[in-house]
Design a protein that fits this description.
about 30% helix; 17 strands; 9-stranded antiparallel sheet; D-amino Acid Aminotransferase, Chain A, domain 1; 4-stranded parallel sheet; ATP_grasp_subdomain_1; ATP-binding; alpha+beta; 3 domains; Rossmann fold; Dna Ligase, domain 1; globular
Amino acid sequence: MTNLSKLIRPGSTIGIIGGGQLGRMMAFSAKERGYRIAVLDPTPDCPTAQVADLHIEAAYDDLDALKELARSSDVLTYEFENVDAETIEHVLEAVEIAVPQGTELLLNTQNRLTEKDFLENSGIPIAAYAKIETEENLKEAVETLGYPCVLKTVQGGYDGKGQVVLESDAEFEEASALIKKGTCVLEEWVSFEKELSIMVARNASGDVVTLPVSENIHENNILLKSIVPARVSDEVMDEARQIAETIAEKMTLSGVLGVELFLTSEGKLYANELAPRPHNSGHYSIEACSDSQFDLHIRAICGYPLAEVDLLKPAVMVNILGEHFEQALELNSSQPAWHVHDYGKKEVKTVRKMGHVTILTADTEKTLKDIEETKIWD
């Protein structure tokens, strides 16, 4: 369900469910446009709270706290997908508030099986898959899909968590342990040449725009670098845009959606996953584009028209994890042209996303070498 019948004008309050770095960057964009920010997050002094006007310190599924957020806001949005859709429905019944993204988007993307059914029914190419509830299901599906294949929990996994790659029968014990936690999906292995993503924005009036296609490099299942524009053919870029626009229209999207894709050596694209909000691989857009993914999201959920996005300059974005943090901050002194973002997280942990660096460049290959030469990401 979505509900937005009027413009949410500057001076109004945008309520954000979730106080991480995505909410923080949404808030920066909203503040630039004259909005106030309220945030719901259980963590004291979380990244978004540091730049918000109101912080409601409570769990994401706390109905009373969500009602308080709704009453304090003119429009609600969320910065991550693990928000309980049923709880939001209860809020909508109790408080008259605009939630442009609605709950259908959450329901379609929170569950991998539901998401795959949606993509398949929308004519979007995806890898073959099977629903897995028992070890017997798994054995039968492996016989059909073959090795290698990937077993994933239907809900909750991110950055490689909640999944097992099966190369042979040797991984069955680990896979069985995952099945015991709940329903899973087994996916055919896609032998990809590149991982790509594209951000698409749509408002309630039906304006649809996309950001440039990003080429993504992962390490240990966590995004390390994004290269924009992706080093692919114009035909692949056009197909990625068509896929993203189709998904946005079929979902009647309001806001920003991230579409992750696999590109095979034969030039075939497969949709991998959807993110119903701004995405890590779109952070480059803050410096590199005429409108960032956060600008588009704020405009879309507030009901304003969306303009076509121009890439102002090619860029490379690199994630700063906990193990990179101290050295990466030194780049402020040694690389004054590099844009170093610190998310304001108080506790530095290994593999935790602490910030990112965006480098605008006229020579992508040289920039990639410059990044290597810092030795920070070795």
